[in-house]
Amino acid sequence: MIATRTTLLALSVGIVTAACATSVDSTLPSGTASSAAGSNASLTGGGGSTAPNAAADTPAQGGASNSDANSAGNAASGSGGTGGGAVEEVPEPGDASFAALTASATSLGVYAQLIVTFHSSVAFQNPFDQEDIKVDLVALAPDGSTVTMPAFFSSGSSGDAKWEAHFTPRQQGRYRYRAQVTHAGVIVKSDQLGLDVTESTLDGFLHLSPTSAYDLVFDSGKRFRGVGLNYGWETDKYKFADMLPRLQQSKVNFIRTWEGPGRYLLQQGQPLSRFDSAIASKLDQVMQLAQDNGIYLMSTLEPAIYYLTTPNGGDQNVQWSANPFSSAKGGPCGKTADFFTNPAARRHYKNKLRYAIARWGADPHLAVWEMWNEYDHLVEQLQVPTSAIAAWHKEMGGYLRDTDPYGRIVTTSLSHNDYADVWSLPEMQFTQRHLYGSTETLAGTVGTYETKYQKPFVSGEFSLDWRWPQMHPASEYGRELHLGLWRGMFAPTPILPMTWWWDFHADNNQYFHFEHASTMAAKTSEGTGPLTPQAITATNNLEALALQSPAGRFVWLHNKGSASLNGASFTLTQLPAVTFTARSFNPWTGAWGEPTTLTPTSGSLKIDLPALPGDADLAYWLAAP
Known about the structure:
It contains 12 helices and 32 strands. Mean pLDDT is 87; it is low at 4-87. It is of the alpha+beta class. Strands 1, 3, 5, 6, 9, 10 and 11 form a 7-stranded mixed β-sheet that branches. The longest helix has 18 residues, at 343-360. α2 (240-249) packs parallel to α3 (277-293) and α5 runs parallel beside α7. β9 (173-183) and β10 form a beta hairpin.
C-alpha cells in the first residue's frame, strides 16, 4: 500500500558482471603481493592489462591475459584441478597494488558464504562509482564456468582502501579465484586463491519453479512455499531483533520489507552514488537475523511515496523534494518523471544496485528484488508515462539479471492497476498486485493473472481494508487474514498472500494463523512435485479447494453460511488405485485428527464431514503411499 504513516523505507541495490577468465590454483600464500610484468602510470604501484572496452560492464571479454585464458582452459579440462593427474599450470602472480588478501575459509560446504578482504593501492575519486573504479571477485567454478561477484568498499581512502567480497559457491569441487580491479581502462588482478567446496545440508538460492506456479525451488531442488507477511519497517514497539525470532516461532518463512537490503535511506542525506555505512551495517544485522531465523526476504527497493510531490503522513522527508535524485537535493531530475529517463539518474541507480548486490547478494535469504512498491500512484497522481516506467524496469531488471550471479528473482508491484507493458517484460519474473477487501475472489484473480501473463502471481499485500485497522473489529481482520492464507494456499501462487498490518495482528495475538497455515503449506511442498489442481466436488454449497502432488492430496473446505452443516461431504475423483492415509486438520487450532486409511473406488473417494459450524473451515491431507 502507499504508506499512511511516517516510516523508514527502502531503495538501492548493486552489482556488475566482469566475466573474466581466471587461472588455476596458486602456490602463492594468501596476502602475498608480487610484482606483475609491465607497468602503467594510471595505476598506483603495479602493472596490468589494458581493457579493450573500458566502458563495458564485462571488461574481461578480451581483457584477460593469455596466461589467464590458458590456465582457465587447463582448469576446466582438468575438472577443477582433480582430474586424473592433469598437470596444473602455475598462475601468473598478482599485481603489486594488492595487499593483505585474506579469505575466511579454504574449504566450505556448498551454498555457504565465503568472505574475502584485501587492500588496494589503486587511486579513485569515488569508490561507489563503477565508472571510476570497479572491484570484483572473479572465480573459476569446478565446471569451468566463470562467476563474477562485485566487491564493495569497506574502509580507507583513495590509494589505501580496504575492499570486501562475499561469495557463495553453488557447485561442489575446486574453485579458483582472484580479486580484480578495473580503473581507467586497466584491469589488475590479485594473487590467486583456491576454495574446496564439499557437500552440505544447505539449499542455496530460490528460483521460479520450471514445473509449477504453486511453489519456488531452491538450487538443491527442494521445493518452497512462502508463508508470511509484510514487516515494512521497525517501530518503537517492534524491532527486527525481536520480531524475526517471533515470526520464526510462528513458522513464518517469508517477509516483504521496505527496510531490507537496498533500503532507500541507504542514500538519504548522501550525494548520489555515496552510501551511508551506518545504515549498511544495520542492514547487515537484518540479513544475519534472517539467516538465524530461516526467513527469506522480498526487499522493496523503491516506495512510490518518496517520489510524490506531497509529504506522506506530514513527514517532510518523505516526498520528492527530499529525494536525492531531485534537483532540490542536488540531483539530476527536475521532476519525478525525469528519474525514469535521465541518463545520469539511471547511471547512479545502477551504482546503487551494484553496491547492494555486492554487500548482500551472496546471501540466499535475500530472495527477491521488488523494484517498486505501487508505482501506479506515480502514473495516476503525476502522470508519469507507463511506457517510460516500463523501459526503466526493462533496463534495471536486465542489469540485475546480467550482474547478479545467483539468478535472484526480480519483480515490482502495483496497487490496483494492471499495466501489461511492465508485466509482459521477461525481466519481471512474477506479477504482483495488492488485494484489499474480501479474499473470496482471490483464487480467480491469481488464476487470471497467471493465464494472462504466463508467470506466477503474488499478492504482496492484502487485508480486509487498506485503511487503518480500526475501521473494523479486530476479529474481522483476523478472519480475513485466515481466509486469505488458506485460499492463497490452494491458488497457483508460490508465496501465500501477505497481510500489510503486521503490527496490528501482533497486537491482537493473531500470528497463530501463520503457524497453522505454514504447517499445511509445508506438506504441500514435500517431495518432488509438481503441485497441481485436484478435481473435487462438495455438497451443501461448501467452498471446496484441492491440490495434488506425489506426496498426496490436500483439501480445504469452508462453510460459507452462518448455520451449522450436518451430513456434508466431499468427493475426490481421478485418483490412482492406491491406499491413502487420511487425516483432518483444524486450521484454527492446528490440531490433527486420527489417521485412517482410504482406498478409492473406480478412481473416486467420498469423505463424510463432521458437523461444521457456520463460517468454519476444515482441511485434509491424504498422504500417498
